[in-house]
Write a structure and sequence with these properties.
By secondary structure, the chain is of the alpha/beta class. The protein has three domains: 172 residues, FAD/NAD(P)-binding domain (3-Layer(bba) Sandwich); 124 residues, FAD/NAD(P)-binding domain (3-Layer(bba) Sandwich); 108 residues, Enolase-like, domain 1 (2-Layer Sandwich), CATH 3.30.390. The protein is 28% helix and 24% strand. Helix 3 crosses helix 4 and helix 3 packs parallel to helix 7. The radius of gyration is 24 Å and the shape is globular. The N and C termini lie far apart (71 Å). The model has no long low-confidence stretch (mean pLDDT 97). Bound molecules: flavin-adenine dinucleotide (FAD) and NADP nicotinamide-adenine-dinucleotide phosphate. The site of flavin-adenine dinucleotide has 36 residues, from helix 1, helix 2, helix 3, strand 4 and helix 9.
């Protein structure tokens, strides 16, 4: 192998998203010379965006802003119950174009700040599509169709993924994905959301909140991988808000109608009953594919596993000087803070002498459905599978957020659950919460779970009143007791 200084860079990062940028900046902070390549291929509809990756441009950030827009619509109506004089409630409606403009303005400002930050931190940014020429050489295909070849001692692959399209007639021509939704130049209208994962539920939720009819098509179960009691509570709370779910159903085709709308034909996979309906928008939210195809991985000898890259616990591929982080790695959560944390820790190990590896356990997450769901740790069914039903205790309770009373908002699905070991101080294995600001509630508890939280400590924690987070400190009813988990009183 050539000595380290024979390479152009100490590190090349392919992919300038959450993980790649965090890794590149941390590597420079630890003394490395770093180049970071980023390139976005347009969607079939032609949508493209700037540096920063999925989260900033077509993921968490625009999603959260649209979710917030939807919640604000709800709040306007609630405000009237609280005594705000709203002259003509019926006239209140969303302006999709204005919303998209505001969201896109914010994204552009983040793109700009990102570029300035890279320049300030001395990361060389190359706006090109990267692929391997050999294990130490990466070629960047630039916008003007020229190529630039660079070498590095170490390479990190952080190319993320893109939405999948189903293999049915009309899918590519007429359907859109989350890559298009946040910059759509027309109001989506009546929308069919295919897929019942995070993206499907979140998009269907905010679209309905913004006043557009939305339907969720579920192939098998809602929120696969999550605690299924909680997943069903989330789905039921969406149905209560007027979002129908087509269960055990898959789409068969999409056709354009004479008046320019979209006719979707579908089939129920249990009854084989066929059905159809007409929509203005069809949104595919059926999962994401790792972007391995453009990388020419064979030239470097890197092994692929189900369109992702297989890595060991140190994010190392089968080629020892090549690593992968973020959504592109196989079998890890596809979440922004996971990509960032793994990227930083990797850079410190590569250039800062650190030995710390990423801990992928007990990563908290939130589904930004209209009534949000957040959790950390194990699902009830996973705990039962691992420890046996007799060895776990499940504490649970419905609760009534104080602020829901005056506007008479439904409290039916506000629910918390703690899954714990049954013996000793009852180590907490998982916490689950459906209700307002779920992510804000669970984030702090996630640190407690990481620190070995027990039910004894949780129930000895004095709550903050009146909050919804305090419900975790009031969990006195176990499922095993069979007692009614519906609250009788609020303040005593
Ligand atoms: P990415 O951010 O996808 O970055 C990869 C970059 O590499 C992209 O810019 C890509 O274009 C570029 N690239 C690809 N191939 C090449 C190549 N050959 N050469 C050069 N560049 C290349 N996560 C959360 O934690 N919270 C949320 O609320 C949340 N909401 C989401 C909502 C939506 C709609 C979506 C789609 C995702 C959401 N996520 C959320 C997931 C989160 O966005 C991802 O986990 C995160 O962006 C992954 O970061 P990454 O660095 O691995 O990849
Ligand atoms: P996902 O969570 O994997 O869900 C995909 C959904 O599509 C599942 O319900 C799946 O059903 C269904 N599906 C798959 N193929 C289908 C087909 N051919 N026809 C019909 N339905 C099909 O994927 P996602 O919602 O696209 O999200 C991708 C990742 O982004 C997530 O894993 C998550 O980590 C990240 N993300 C995070 C957040 C957040 O943190 N709030 C938000 C959005 C996205 P089956 O169960 O039957 O397979």
């Amino acid at each position: 192998m050539a000595p380290i200084n024979e390479y152009d860079y100490d590190l090349i990062v392919i992919g300038g998203g959450s993980g790649g940028l965090a890794c590149a900046k941390e590597a420079v902070a630890n003394g490395a010379k770093v180049a970071c390549l980023d390139f976005v291929k347009p969607t079939p509809l032609g949508t493209k965006w700037g540096i920063g990756g999925t989260c900033v441009n077509v993921g968490c950030i625009p999603k959260k802003l649209m979710h917030q827009a939807s919640l604000l619509g709800e709040s306007v109506h609630e405000a009237a119950a609280y005594g705000w004089e709203i002259p003509n409630k019926e006239a209140i409606k969303p302006d999709w174009e204005k919303l998209v403009q505001s969201v896109q303005n914010h994204i552009k400002s983040v793109n700009w700040v990102t570029r300035v930050d890279l320049r300030d931190k001395k990361v060389e940014y190359i706006n090109g599509l990267g692929f391997f020429k050999d294990p130490h050489t990466v070629v960047a295909k630039l916008k003007n169709n020229t190529e630039r070849t660079i070498t590095a001692s170490k390479i990190v692959i952080a190319v993320g993924g893109r939405p999948r399209y189903p293999d049915i007639p009309g899918a590519l021509e007429y359907g859109i994905t989350s890559d298009d939704l946040f910059s759509l130049d027309r109001a989506p209208g009546k929308t069919l959301v295919v897929g019942a994962g995070y993206i499907g539920l979140e998009c269907a939720g905010f679209l309905k909140g913004l006043g557009y009819e939305s339907t969720v098509m579920v192939r098998s179960i809602v929120l696969r991988g999550f605690d299924q009691q909680m997943a069903n509570i989330v789905a039921d709370s969406m149905v209560e808000r007027g979002i129908p779910f087509l269960h055990k159903t898959i789409p068969k085709s999409v056709e354009k109608t004479e008046d320019g709308r979209l006719l979707v034909k579908y089939v129920n996979t249990e009854t084989q009953e066929e059905g159809s309906d007409v929509y203005d928008t069809v949104l595919w939210a059926i999962g994401r594919k790792g972007l391995v195809d453009d990388l020419n991985l064979d030239a470097a000898g890197i092994q692929v596993k189900a369109d992702k890259i297989a890595v060991n616990e140190a994010e190392q591929t089968n080629v020892p000087h090549i690593y992968a982080i973020g959504d592109i790695i196989h079998g890890r959560p596809e979440l922004t803070p996971v990509a960032i944390h793994a990227g930083r820790l990797l850079a410190r190990r590569l250039f800062g002498g650190s030995k710390q590896i990423m801990d992928y356990t007990d990563v908290a997450t939130t589904v930004f459905s209209p009534l949000e769901y957040a959790c950390v740790g194990m699902a009830e069914e996973d705990a039962i599978k691992k420890y046996g039903e007799d060895n776990i205790e499940v504490f649970h309770g419905f609760y009534k957020p104080t602020e829901f009373f005056i506007p008479q908002k439904s409290v039916r699905y506000c629910y918390v659950k703690a899954v714990a070991e049954r013996s000793g101080d009852q180590k907490v294995l998982g916490l689950h919460y459906v209700g307002p600001v779920a992510g804000e509630v669970i984030q702090g508890f996630a640190a407690a779970v990481k620190s070995g939280l027990t039910m004894k400590i949780l129930l000895n924690t004095v709550g903050i009143h009146p909050t919804t987070a305090e419900e975790f400190t009031r969990l006195s009813i176990t499922k095993r007791s069979g007692m009614d988990p519906t609250p009788a009183s609020c303040c005593s």
